[in-house]
From TrEMBL:
Name the UniProt record assigns to this protein: starch synthase
Residue stretches making up the Starch synthase catalytic domain: 8-230
Stretches of the chain forming a coiled coil according to its record: none
Protein keywords: Glycosyltransferase, Transferase
């Protein structure tokens, strides 16, 4: 298989074992990434560089040639730093999106008093945009983009709107891992306007996100993704029940065997690259 003929998989995620484990999917994605790499496909993983990730232990280092991009969030420029590490026991590169204002703190989504960070909406937008901007800078067109976690929930929207004419994403199929809401707070009345100020997106295109809470993020991501993977059991009985497998959407039901056998998810990658 030539380099040019290799299929390309991009995973954009909140979490990945061993760097950050918020749910069981951190381990599942680790296994899925390694299997995909070992199969001969090209794969890259992008995640936030949360401050609790130990850079020395995991051997993160800045990629100076890729850093220096400014990412617009709510009409303001924010510098993007790119760091990279090799996944242990694999020659697989994991790229970490970093910014001192958003990710330096030694926490993930809440402070020491369990208060939801006020700037989590900005952090969400910054991460989703920075993930796509760095892929543009790579000039590396992915066949499949697998988004996992609420911090990736704007990526399917961006790909179908603000980034739909970008040559690097023209043939990309998107997967979103749906889970139950992981926070109860609102992102604020100005969240949708903030997204509009950050990218060329019309008000109507943002309607699925109008509730500006975690449920709306999940719903909106599922609305725009090509494939939905149920990352938890019982999601058929939630607001996602309207999404059915059919001509324009594929839905993969949850399996409690994924921790031991990720072959069905790997086969999903394979099938999407062959369409």
């Amino acid at each position: 298989m030539s380099i040019q003929s290799k299929k390309r998989i991009l995973i954009v995620t909140n979490e990945l074992s061993p760097y950050l484990e918020l749910t069981d999917f951190a381990t599942i994605l680790n296994k899925l990434s390694v299997k995909t790499f070992d199969s001969g496909m090209e794969i890259r993983v992008i995640m936030p560089r949360f401050g609790i990730i130990n850079e020395r232990r995991h051997r993160l280092h800045e990629v100076v040639r890729l850093s220096g991009i400014n990412v617009v969030v709510d009409k303001e420029d924010h510098p993007l730093l790119i760091k990279v590490a090799s996944l242990p026991n694999a020659r697989l590169q994991v790229y970490f999106m970093d910014n001192e204002d958003f990710f330096k703190r030694k926490a993930v989504f809440r402070d020491e008093h369990q208060h939801f960070f006020d700037d989590n909406p900005e952090r969400l937008i910054f991460f989703c945009k920075s993930a796509l901007e760095i892929v543009k800078k790579f000039g590396w067109p992915p066949d499949v983009i697998h988004c996992h976690g609420w911090m990736t929930s704007l990526v399917p929207l961006f790909l179908k709107t603000a980034y739909k004419k970008e040559p690097v994403f023209v043939h990309s199929k998107t997967i979103f891992t749906a889970q139950r809401p992981q926070f109860e707070e609102s992102l604020g009345e100005g969240f949708v306007k903030m997204v509009m100020n950050s990218a060329a997106i019309k008000d109507k295109e943002l309607e699925p996100y109008n509730k500006s809470d975690n449920e709306a993020l999940i719903y909106g991501a599922c609305k725009y993704a090509d494939v939905i993977v149920h990352g938890e059991p019982g999601l058929e009985d939630t607001s996602l029940s309207e999404f059915k497998s059919g001509r324009h959407k594929k839905v993969v039901s949850y399996s409690d065997e994924w921790m031991e056998n990720i072959d069905p998810l790997f086969e999903l990658y394979q099938s999407l690259t062959q369409e």
